[in-house]
Design brief:
Order of helices and strands: HHHHHHHHHHHEEEEEEEEEHHHHHHH
Strand order of the largest sheet: 1-2-3-7-6
Distance between the termini: 49 Å
Number of strands: 9
Shape: elongated
Length: 648
Amino acid sequence: VLNPDGSEPTGPHFAAGETAGYSGGEPTWENVATKWLGIVAAVMVVGGLAFLLLVVRPASMALGEALRGRCREAGRRHLAWLAWPALGALAVAGAAEVLLQARQLGGLGFIDDTLRTSWGERWIQRQLVLGAMVAALFLAGWLWRRGRERLSDGALGVALAGGLAYLLLVAMVSHGASIPGSFWAIAADFVHLVASSVWVGMLAQLALFLLWARGHVAQEERPAVTVAHLQRFSVLAATSVVVLLASGAVNGLSQIPVPEAMLDTAYGRVLTIKLCLMMALLAVAGVNALYLRPRVAGAEGVEHRLNSRLAGMIRVEIGLALAVLLVAAVLVQYPTARQERAAEANVETSTQAVVAFEQIQQAGDVTVDISIAPNEVGTNSFRVFLFPPSGGDVGKVQRVRLRFKPPDPALGPSEIIADEVALNQYKAVGAFFTRPGDWEVQVDLRRAALDDVSTLFRVNVTGVGAGEGRDRFALPLVAGSWTAVGAVGALLAALLMAIWVTQWPTLPAPAARPLRVGSAAVTVIGLAILVTVLWPGLLQSAPASGNPIAPSAESIAIGRGLFADNCAKCHGQTGHGDGPLAAGLGVPPADFRAHVPYHSDKFFFQVIGNGLGTFMPAFGGQLTEDQRWHLINFLKAEFGVNAEHTGH
């Protein structure tokens, strides 16, 4: 929208894609590079701190005092080699992010507008956390040089907590933040980032540590050093892989609505590439964990050739991990498959048979029926049906206008002119409901040579408006249930317990037996719950919307007979409205092909029972409630949106 003089107005320029109901678009090299740099840097910082505190420090406890000090000194030196450049990279990536966001709004002059958004708030918080991490690392080094090892370790712990907070802030602006159940989706993203950091960041530190051990530790001391560090790293890495795969599965099931979306959406195709790389990465990691590391850590000492082979395979593992992170940086630039499907569904709402709101009002001499689907905040389909008075005619309708008045008068009304799609049927599609609440929808009819008439519908709109909270604790997955999630969670817990009880080097003997028993018990419980969830006999088919009788073949057959006995004489055997009595009626009977897909079951139940004005008699005294529901099941099966009409 230009200024009155034709000039371009000031203010943010939002991308067209943002009005379609989802964020994201085609990735650019600068966005991908910035995201990848930030991810890799965060991984190296968090993983490096975790390696020093959870591997080097405890693994060196069993070594002699001199060797213990050398190992810890080497660990801190390796951390500094990667952590300080990574912190600088995080600062650079953060600056690039905010500049790119401002450019999307129209230029560098809109940095202030960018920082006022929720994304900008999280960005500011990340920079504050980054500053705290820099201060904590600087303090840790200063304390270490003065011989205050315990205080130095405490400062490193603060830096690690800061790194976790940084990853949480990243997760809070991820794709998971935009869906119902965002609490769990964000938690899954956060856990996914942490597991990636522990695995990949610690792997980089392990490579440096093994290289140092080969060149700076005597041959007779090297087995003890290598074995102690490999054992602890292996347990933490295995735990990270399990958690990584589980959280990745949650993310996938939250954002991929149907299997086909893996191939027919950009998000799905990039995710497929990521999964293929992950399979290669897991294969290399499996060779390292199950073949090379056990042999390097064998009781008979460390063989030079195995050491070299392990070091080479670790480098391959790191390279594949960085490639996976690069694909992840591309992935987050695209709208998710769930968002794309939702946008497509909004556009195609008018073809859906599910009607969330339907009401009939009188507008002068015309009966007006309006149906709205899905009757939620966002894009909706509006269908208007006009029924003439008995023995009369609606007249020549020149315009059908819908006016929308929001619950908050400060927002102002909006309107649209509906398109005629069939005789006395009008349709409009648009995002007029911008927030939940009680809306007023006014239908105005302009007719040639007849009085204009209007009627007002009061519509309770559901959903989530801009800036309002969603159901943050709902199930974020597009399939499954909380019971299934609990069963799988129990099995994962059992697996992690088994890993720790068999692999952790210093696990006390009294704790091992309860963990083994607990692992077995949790496995049995998880399998029992999973079998219960998946057992076909326990799954009941849901009845049709608003209809307590499921649309079984038997129900449809009953409805077919009722249709032939009660409806066909007016509406015709094929539902065209051309039955033998139709010609003598003042108003032609409805063509079911043009009505059934766009009305709710409740509407038909009321019309069959109570009639419709003076041109549709009531059948409530002739048909029981169950018979009416059977008849509706037949109508939906024969004339609904999924029925085949071509033969009629």
